[in-house]
Amino acid sequence: MLLAAFSLAQVLSYPFPSALVRDKSGYAIAYALDTQGVRTIWFARAPRVVIPSTLPGRTFTEMVGVGSFTPVQLFSSDRDDGQELTNLAISDDGSHVVYVRGGDHDANWTLPYQPNAASSTNKPEMQVWSVPTSGGASKLLGEGDAPVISPDSKHVAFTSDGAVMIAPIDGSSPAKQLFYDRGADSELQWSPDGTALAFASDRKDHSFIGIYRNGATALQFLAPTTSQDFMPRWSPDGTQIAFVRLHGDGGPPPRNPFDWTPNPWQIWVADARTASGHMAWSSPNTLRGSLPSTAGGPFMEWLAGNQIIFKSEQNNWLHLYAVPAQGGAARLLTPGSFMIEDVDVAPDRQSVVYSANTGSTAGDDDRRHVFSVDVANARVTQVTRGAGSEWQPVALVDRLVAYDGATAQQPPLITLEQPVHITGSSATSVIKPLDRPPSDFPSSQLVTPQEVSFKSADGQLIHGTLFVPSGGGKHPGIVFVHGGPPRQMLLSWHYMDYYSNAYAVNQYLASLGFVVLSVNYRLGIGYGHDFNFPAKWGPTGASEYQDVLAGAKFLQREPRVDPARIGIWGGSYGGYLTAMALARNSNVFKAGVDYHGVHDWSLDVENGVWGSPQLKRYQQYDTRAVMKLAWDSSPDSAIATWKSPVLLIQGDDDRNVEFHQMVDLVQRLRAAHVPYEEIVIPDEIHGFFRYASWLEADSATAEFLSRHLSPTP
Questions:
Q1: Residue 327 burial (CB count, 10 A)
Q2: 568 Cβ contact partners less than 8 Å away, ≥ 6 residues apart
Q3: I want to staple 194 with a disulfide (CB 3.0 to 4.6 A). Which of 151, 164, 330, 651 is the partner?
Q4: Distance between CA atoms of residues 324 and 308, nearest Å
Q5: Whole-model pTM above 0.90?
Q6: What is the pLDDT of residues 493-514, one digit of tens each?
Q7: CA-to-CA distance for 523 and 570, rounded, in angstroms?
């Protein structure tokens, strides 16, 4: 194994920010940090400074600068306990931050017990907590999830096993059930005046939008039909509720449950008093017109002027549109060949900030930058720019924007930016990061990935990022394949903790002398809807595998790469593609590391946990053709040609890919005499919760690939 210029522990030591939120007025932010498994919550608030105004018709104005925000720590887990922090919210009066501790919010399915990645002898629960921003201990409000704070800042409503609970925000008395509803309730939304609570009531094959007012008034359901209604959003004046409507479950089943089929949707607006509603907008009945399911998923919110903003991919690119609440044609706000991802409506609802993979710098299709759009005239201003990436923006007062920002060398940091001079579509800004990496973080020793592209066997253009180590001679090559699959690897550190970890490992592998190619294969995001939803994907033909093989052949043509020493690694869907590469093309891929991959798609067809909703819809048909195609699209079907060694890694409480996928593959590899090694992490989930788990798995990955691919000393 070659000696690296820095240790793996060093490059994994960065604090990773998440859950950035603002208060209603835009004067305060809160966020979580995960620093080597120790999870903390931070709060920053700007004082309101009133000065004489130079604006016509205004005597005074309020000014806030980036220097006004100084973060303070409100909570710390104090150890690598494997309990995530999510769903942060700030009370309107700024007195409390509410959060959820525990659970697995990225799971594909739920289990009757909460994750216990640290193997604690005390049973973990998913709990709602509040902490005063003035200092003091956190108070437990109750077991549950998805808290929303009342407008008067006195109470917190949240869900617990489908019931709606309520508790005083200071934890002075136990939580109690707010009301009874036959459905499983979620997506709670307080009315602007705090006198009513909207919610989605899931009745399995259909769902309603309901309103609770008080214990003496019956629940009210808005324009009920056989449809699936969700995402309730109160109008600013509290007189209307907008919501998303999908067709109810049932109907003729698809030929293959894994085929792409249109999922048309509508925006409805209901009168909050009479419960009568009307359709404000309807999507095209096409694949592109389907309800957005990637890049942040669906988004809908009220704007000023009785308008509603939403995301749609109807023109192949995920964009923002505005439609009058009374109905009418939707107006495109963000035209161009790029993808919108994170969105936040400004406190005055006159503008919107968002992140997108476009900009004025070459390679921006593999980055993220922050933009602002004025709703009235659709004028777009680029807020951030350069060779880094910025995401998860929140709009604050006085044109301030907070976001996560990173470069190729700098890991993600919560950053404040304030445009001070706007000319046309560009802005000059004052920028202030609120955090910093550790003093020994090896920023200066990290390489800058290069944007590359190549064509797959069927002519599809594929993008990738190439990590090239220093030094001459021939280097071993590594193909990295992301999971998801709706993901995109960037030319910088990533906005998801899972892929920031992968980016750190790829940087470490480059420091060991590997040339690493991260392949953005079809099925990923960032290159349009059609790229994201290709024909013959995964269990219907594995068309995306040819992009991975094309990436390996690209490396083999690289003058700095030894074509006889190509390896591969990836996790989740990337684990599936890693196993596909080793099974089908051991002549190209000489070793691989497979984190929690799928190895037999046919197991998902008849899986009682994962496949049963799909199976129910087509069980009247002969499923043999579906099963055969799924099997033929799986690594297990090519065990006979799998010769290269593999390291398999998975936690046995995985809630995204069944642990049996690894158990079953091990038996097949053993029977076929394929060399394999395995690391099983008891009680860990899919995207490991503990830093110790990542360090163990990542260290083993680097050692395994170095042992099998590095030159003999």
A1: 14
A2: 478, 479, 480, 481, 548, 552, 577, 578, 581, 582, 589, 591, 592, 593
A3: 151
A4: 6
A5: yes
A6: 999 999 999 999 999 999 999 9
A7: 15
